[in-house]
Amino acid sequence: MDNVGAGLVPARYEAEEEMEVKDKIRETLINLLKLKPNEVRDDMKLCDGIGVDSTEMVEFVIVLEKVFGVKLSPKEITKFCSVNEIEKTIQSKLVAAARV
Amino acid sequence: MRKIAVTGIGIVAPSGIGKRQFWANIKAGRSFIKPITRFDAKDYSSHIAGQIDDLDAYTHVSERLLKKMDAFSHMALIASEMSLQDAGLDIQKEDPNLVGIFLGNAIGGWLYAETELRDLYLEGRSGVSPYMASAWFPAAPQGQVSIYYGIKGFSKTVVSDRASSLMALGYASKTLGKDKLNLILAGGMEAPVTPYALLCCNTYGCLSKNNDNPQSAYRPFDKKRDGCVIGEGAGIVTLENIERAKARKANIQAVISGYGTTCDAKDRINPATDGKELARAIQMALDDAKVSPEKIDYISLDGMACDDWDLGEVSAIKQVFGAKAKTLPTSCPKSMFGNLLGASGAVDMITTILSMEHNLVPPTINLDEPANNGLNYIKKEAKEHKINKALVISRGRGGINSALVVEKE
Description:
The complex is a heterodimer.
Chain A: H1 11-16, H2 21-33, H3 54-68, H4 74-78, H5 83-99
Helix pairs in contact in A: 2-3, 2-5
Chain B: E1 4-13, E2 16-17, H1 19-27, E3 34-35, E4 48-49, H2 63-66, H3 71-86, E5 99-104, H4 110-123, H5 132-135, H6 140-149, E6 156-158, H7 164-177, E7 183-190, H8 195-204, E8 233-241, H9 242-247, E9 254-263, H10 276-289, E10 298-300, H11 307-321, E11 329-331, H12 344-358, E12 360-361, E13 376-377, E14 383-384, E15 389-396, E16 400-407
Parallel strand pairs in B: 5-6, 5-7, 10-11, 10-15, 11-13
Antiparallel strand pairs in B: 1-2, 1-8, 1-9, 3-4, 7-8, 9-16, 12-14, 15-16
Helix pairs in contact in B: 3-6, 7-12, 10-11
């Protein structure tokens, strides 16, 4: 069950990193905002907890699109409240892309 | 006008960051003009400048914030912090609606803008940092200072070429005089040591090409002058009404007592060589301060080191000061660290206040043989001289003239 769809993941994504999606998202956030690893938890609210402002969110989304090779719509972006929720959105995109 | 107290000084300049280091180098007459090392500038006809390399060592700004701003905003934040500390003020205890910011800038944040524009053409829209929109424009430092301290009062950024920051100080003083605010951070910042900004300054054609001798290149009023040398930095002071400053027992380092500004209405770049409109601005500032020319003890010169600019400035001083012009000490200390363009007037005022404090006129270095006779140029070395009242002159392209009177309290 754990390997369902694994062979269908696009080559770009597969070759990029072995890191889990959530780890990559967290690392991206930490690098962009110059945070310390212990300042970010996966359930923390980006706006209220980490203080991400609107421009930081724009930059974050641009980098996530590059890292994962997916397109993210403004509607999806507004749902990005925590690392956990971003991971769900990106995972679903990756799985959808793999099915094409 | 009502006299306005200067209670704090913040200075970020090639000659030093912080007023003690800055003044130690100014009074010693040391030049900080060097070949530009930030980028390969050797193909520019003028590739020397007053460059600041150790900004990060003085910063109190987080990396997270720093990546969103150009160097000129960073300099403004450091100068603002130094100014408030020097004034002994805790800004969090002030009513934010009654604190203002009046800053001057000429060219904006080009290092940030150039980098992102390059990425736009190389990588397309997604290659451009989203912070670009809020990082490059001349009022960006005002915004960053406002956000950093939570300042919410009436504020303004003046863009008036090299006269920008002296005009900002003038407007700030007028605003405080009307009791609209309690406190203003006022001055200016400029960061022109970037590939495109340097190109524009070179194209303008008033920069020294004496690249082989950087320390002696900027020579205002000298027969061998061939233009100014650019520099970067910020000068920001804390201004308050005298009554408030006295009530809180602040150290009143000087007072701003008069301001005047005029336009030449002659040429889109060069000044009027007859100096008539500059003379009118000077007279306006003196009248505003209710000070006669005889009472002025020192003049801080604009000193562009170009024939027309220097000629007009000397002519204006002679028109206002008459016979006294021959004996009244004058100098252009920016010959040591470069012309900070939009920040130059504020830095000149700070230098003048430090000169008043120490009763020492800083020199115009590199002035060997005056091309324009009739002024008492203090050359080479600082000279002891009691200064109670002083005049600061700042001018910009297109014939912008401004003058400010500062006095001991």
